[in-house]
Amino acid sequence: MSTMREAWFLLKSEMMGTRMRIIKVVAFSLVMMGYFGLFTGVMLQERLKDQDPMIIADYLLLLTVPMLGFVYCRRSLRYWGSDVYTKTLSYLRTLPVPSKAVLCKRQLQSLLAFCLNGLIFFGLLYALSPDARHSLPPAAYLAFVLAWIGYGLVITSVFIHFEMAHSGRMYFVAMVVLVALIAGVAGAVGLSGGNLLLFSARLCRDRGLASPLPWGMLSAGAASLLLMGRWTLQRLKRRDLA
């Protein structure tokens, strides 16, 4: 319990220092998720309307959903261009808080980001796709969203591991490899005649929140955060941040 309190304290001090910072984070999220949501929403509408299993539709969702776990602000964008992760961890190590609280803080940050960004992103998808509203009533669409959020949590656990346990250069290499793997998965599924978007939508449409898909994916996401978190913590304790 003390670890959770320490994690919340770190998160609040980092993200909620001033009202203006909160406004900036929300505004940045609206812009970024608006861009992703508009583009992906048009693609979703076309796929559901034509039932055409195009590979690009899977690739967009597979690539975009994990990005919902980022807090979009100028500081986060600088992370992607330099090794600021290591510098931040080096500073946090000087504070009287355990590594477990630092890791927990990062995981909580991702969960909150999924709540905010997911609301914007998936809300836009539903608003921009009449066929989604027709094919997926609210309960079925919620199941669809939860299933993809579960997938996003799995990939986010990998992001967090490389962010905290490796150098900025290794983090960049891992992200490039991950993007290539996502493209490969989307291509393999498409060439086999399948489509993850249509498949998940069909399962959720038929059974709604009673479908095992959303709960199975959320369980996979939670398990991935837990297991990858343990590995990350072991590496973080031994990592030289000098």
Automatic annotation (TrEMBL):
On the tree of life, the source organism's domain of life is: Bacteria
Membrane spanning segments where? Answer: 21-42, 54-73, 110-128, 140-160, 172-193, 213-233
Q: Which UniProt keywords apply?
A: Membrane, Transmembrane, Transmembrane helix
Question: Which portions of this protein are annotated as coiled-coil regions?
Answer: none
- Name the UniProt record assigns to this protein: ABC transporter permease
Q: Show the taxonomic lineage.
A: Bacteria, Bacillati, Bacillota, Bacilli, Bacillales
